[in-house]
Design goal:
homodimer, about 190 residues, Tetracycline Repressor, domain 2, DNA-binding, Homeodomain-like_sf (chains A, B), transcription regulation (chains A, B), DNA-binding (chains A, B), transcription (chains A, B)
Chain lengths: ~190, ~190
DNA sequence: CTAAATCTAACGAACGTTCGTTAGTTATAC
DNA sequence: GTATAACTAACGAACGTTCGTTAGATTTAG
């Protein structure tokens, strides 16, 4: 299907140059067609963008949901650190998470509302799952905390900072250092009385 | 000085729409002149952008340096939390930090190299100062840690995540919650044995 | 089985608009 | 009276988009 090739090229250039900086002719050239031909598959630039966005959202969400459904809920140290590894993997394997991150925080102005809705949706779901996991661990006295929301938000903060480090450069060493540092302090912070 | 007005308008639109999405006519209109008149003050779009960038960098750096020069180095809990408050203040008072954040992570492709150099410079300096502060606190046995780099990187991670929260929405409540959660876990993580 | 109709995917050409930029001219300020 | 900073006018290039058309495959009808 040619549509998928176009979406793939769109994902690439939207990620690198942003919505305004990516041009249809550039995207078409990548696929080997003229920019007018894109209109046989999409209504226009906005349509292409929004389809790429929804694909990225779905991929991101389903990867995370799948991970959460697989963990055993008895070993928070392994499960939480594994989630950070998952995020790093997703980021490096496919471009969708990078695209998603960029558009979450710096959306094209005229689509900001539509994008915000999707972002809120995914954020809400992930937070809800994490919070219930933390609650389980608190009940099982595996970690020490009064309210589940505190470690949840702190952990999501680490996820964000790791993603920023991923988008920043490709300083593999610095990423590893930062992950280790954040994780060490975080884990000590929620597991020690 | 009209140049400053132009830079101020440039800062605004570069921050909202990014380099490619901001147009000189838009910027000129904000100031009340025609876009061609910008060329009496700047060589072109790149020149304007880079001057805005350097102003933002300088403002960001000097605010942070000033803060570090004022703290007494005996009370890390107050000093570190105060730094997070400073970042939030800077972000909400002037647009420069938001601009700086956007361009650090999603620079226009043809200026990426020049921008990266500035970003690396400021990052390096802040990290060096923080690391030496942490070393002082470790030596004074106010915090518990072996190497200063670990709490430094973990703290910088919190700074990043707070900035992302600031750029995201203006959910004041969520920002407060996240700050409190990250800080609680972090402080417990570096102060408890 | 063949002929007509429909669908798919691409094309060149052109649309109106906006972009950043340059040149030459006029007004303002010291 | 000279510089500075604004203006008008115009530039080539690129943008997203629409148009009419073509070539080939697939489906439908007689």
């Amino acid at each position: 299907m040619k549509s998928n090739e176009i979406k793939k090229a769109g994902l690439k250039y939207f990620t690198i140059h942003g919505y305004e900086g990516a041009s249809l002719s550039q995207i078409a050239e990548e696929v080997g067609i003229k920019k007018q031909s894109i209109y046989a598959h999409f209504k226009g630039k906005d349509d292409l963008f929004l389809q790429v966005l929804r694909d990225a959202k779905e991929a991101d969400l389903s990867s995370k949901l799948e991970y959460f459904s697989k963990i055993d809920s008895r070993n928070p140290e392994k499960d939480l650190y594994g989630f950070l590894q998952l995020v790093i993997d997703l980021f490096q394997k496919n471009e969708q998470l990078k695209f998603w991150l960029r558009m979450s925080f710096f959306p094209p102005a005229h689509l900001a509302e539509a994008i915000d809705k999707e972002v809120f949706d995914i954020e809400e779901k992930v937070q809800a799952i994490l919070e219930s996991k933390f609650q389980d661990w608190i009940d099982a006295k595996v970690i020490v905390e009064e309210v589940a929301k505190t470690p949840t938000l702190a952990f999501l903060g680490i996820v964000d900072s790791i993603m920023l480090e991923l988008v920043y450069g490709n300083d593999e060493k610095r990423l590893k250092d930062k992950l280790e540092a954040s994780w060490t302090v975080f884990w000590r912070g929620i597991s020690h009385p």
